[in-house]
Structures are given as C-alpha cells and as structure tokens.
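User: My collaborator sent over this chain with a note saying "see what the structure looks like." That's all I know about it. Can you take a look?
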Amino acid sequence: MERSDASKDSGPKATTSWGAATLAAIAMVVVSFLLFVLIPNTLLAYLTTRMTPTGRDLVVASLWALGFVVACVIFVRLQPRRKT
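Assistant: Without extra context I'll predict from the sequence alone. Here is the result:
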C-alpha cells in the first residue's frame, strides 16, 4: 500500500517572531483580564443597587458571553496564517 502525500509537509508555513508572539500573548492576557474579570466585576458593583438580582445577573452573564465571543475572534485573528 502506498502512503498518501497528506502526511508530508504541505508547503511553507507562516512564521511568527518571538517579539510578535510575545506581544500577541500579552495582548490576549490583557484583553482576557478586562473581558472576564474587570468589566464584569465593575458591572456587578454598579448594577447591584440599580437592578433586581435576576436582571443584573442576566445582563452581566450576557455581556460575559459576548466578551467570550469577542475574545475568541481576537484569538483567531492573532493566529499566523498559512501561506498557500
């Protein structure tokens, strides 16, 4: 049986320098901290006296989920693209 060429290298791959990779990692950590810790905590503190607990939790959970989607999009955009 012959092996297919799928297991071989499919061509040149995009490379990222250490500096660019470090900056991307730092940016992702900062954005993640803002989206998942600082903003929800600030919202909870602000909305505590202004909304019912159920409404407040719904708003914060919805914005957290939206932040998760934004973080995923940012993470995908930071990935190096393959040169084909």
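A starting point for your reply to your collaborator: Residues 23 and 74 are 13 Å apart (CA to CA).
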